[in-house]
Amino acid sequence: xxxxxxxxxxxxxxxxxxxxxxxxxxxxxxxxxxxxxxxxxxxxxxxxxxxxxxxxxxxxxxxxxxxxx
Length: 69
What we know:
By secondary structure, the chain is α+β, with helices and mostly antiparallel strands. It has helices at about 15-25, 55-60; strands spanning about 1-10, 30-35, 40-45, 65. It is globular.
């Protein structure tokens, strides 16, 4: 398993957190996702044999937020 903490811009509320977490956990290989709009972060745990960093970033950006680091 791999853990990543990504800096994300655009989340403004708890609904934004839940929307991001749900989108990520729907991705095959992601075992957990925790978004924190106040900190502007998303912590993701995933199996790198099933999903990669780029796919995680794409899901976050498709949800309407920008990954900046």
